[in-house]
Amino acid sequence: MSKPRPDGITPSQTVGPYFKYGLTPNGEYAWNDAFTSNLLTSDTSGERIRVEGTVYDGDGDVIADCILEIWQADAQGHFSDPQDAHAPPNSPFNGFGRCDTDKSGGYVFDTIKPGVVPDADGKPQAPHILLAVFARGMLLHLYTRIYFDDEAANTSDSVLALVSSDRRATLIAKRKAGTNNVYTFDVHLQGDNETVFFDV
Amino acid sequence: MTLIYPVASNSAHPARLSPAYRSSIKRTPSKPLIPIRHTLSELTGPVYGHETVRKHDNDLTIQSKGEPLGERIIVHGYILDEDGRAVPNTLVELWQANACGRYIHVVDQHPAPLDPNFTGAGRTQSDAAGYYKFITIKPGAYPWGNHHNAWRPAHIHFSVFGHSFISRLVTQMYFPGDPLFPFDPIFNSVTDGKARARMISSFDLENTEPEWALCYRFDIVLRGRNATPMESK
């Protein structure tokens, strides 16, 4: 078979309402999960954290058929991908997770606080996790970033600096009172508290 | 080789707000997205997942004791980047309705029969040449509540990764000549006709297996192209 010369990329279409048995069966369907929402292994180094939250639509209603994916560096700031020249071989930390929302619109990721990764000019970025959001009603997924409210480096992060100060808080996970490792990060697809999404 | 991801390529995608697709109205940001320069976070991506692929996960017709009902088909093609280069060893996930247009998902209440021998989930990885292949059942069309007498054209959902977190693609593969195309707001959310055509598989007689299964060809083109070569020092 010959390979064609592409005249453009394949367009995105919505993930729809019925992805669960294929993408996030999690024991509820007879299919194995390629990915889970727990990125930790016993030998993962770094500060163990939980990031949890709720996904809302423009009416403020929770979205119970959403799928979230995260991608992040390890605690040393290296990605588990050979395209990162500093990628550690055989790292126990893969940096990718997938979670669907429950009937309350909630999600939970167990992971580690990522290290520092350079920005496009080589300057350090504040620790952050990339988040992709897919759902019925979304013809193309959205990208945002999860930062952390206890990181002083947020004030010098070149991506956060592009965001107006009144919307910056939508990108910053808040350490949950009474815990020392649980962060809350809600996603609002639309409305007054609309999360900042990035055009990448 | 360093790949770049020109944002202009995203113009092939649907507008996020496509009011004819009603669910998009409350699930689309009202404020403009903020452009950022790509950093290592955007330019890298998961290079695994395929270790979960078992030997027969790309054959949806042998996952149960009996054979599923419906028209057995082969769906195959290449995963490519924008330059037409193969995307090797990348995870390809697939899910679909059965031959009657019914998903096993508990939320699907379309009054068409479930098939005890068909789950509708599959998984494979592209080989070194970017090639992938599934054996499955041709899915049926099904009604949905978007508008009066709304029917989705038969389609297979695909999820593909590629070289970076921003080459990630979830799409739907359609079948050639479907009479429902003009009426489907999801298909028509892609406004450029050439881009829309890239979501339609082609009938592949050459790779149809005599006495066994029709074949459809579906190439998937992901974001990513070679950076302009620099002058050597």
Please outline what is shown here.
By secondary structure, chain A is mainly β. Helix content of chain A is 4%, strand content 26%.
- SS class of chain B: mainly beta
Helical content of chain A stands at under 10%
CATH architecture of chain B: Sandwich
What percentage of residues of chain B falls in helices of 4 or more residues? under 10%
Describe this structure as you would to a colleague.
The complex is a heterodimer of chains A (200) and B (233). Helices cover 4% and strands 26% of the residues of chain A. Chain A is mainly β and 200 residues long. Chain A has a single domain (20-188), classed as Protocatechuate 3,4-Dioxygenase, subunit A. Chain B has one domain (3-7, 17-226): Sandwich (Protocatechuate 3,4-Dioxygenase, subunit A), CATH 2.60.130. The longest helix of chain B has 5 residues, at 193-197. At the A-B interface, helix 1, strand 5, strand 6 and strand 10 of A face strand 2, helix 1, strand 4, strand 5 and strand 9 of B. Strand 10 of chain A pairs parallel with strand 2 of chain B, so a sheet runs across the interface.
Topology record:
The complex is a heterodimer of chains A (200) and B (233).
Chain A: H1 20-23, E1 48-56, E2 66-71, E3 96-100, E4 106-112, E5 129-135, E6 142-148, H2 165-168, E7 172-175, E8 182-184, E9 187-188, E10 198-199
Parallel strand pairs in A: 1-8, 1-9, 6-7
Antiparallel strand pairs in A: 1-4, 2-3, 2-5, 5-6, 7-8
Chain B: E1 3-4, E2 34-35, H1 40-43, E3 72-80, E4 91-96, E5 121-125, E6 131-137, E7 142-144, E8 150-152, E9 155-160, E10 169-174, H2 193-197, E11 202-203, E12 214-217, E13 220-221, E14 225-226
Parallel strand pairs in B: 3-12, 3-13
Antiparallel strand pairs in B: 1-14, 3-6, 4-5, 4-9, 7-8, 9-10, 11-12
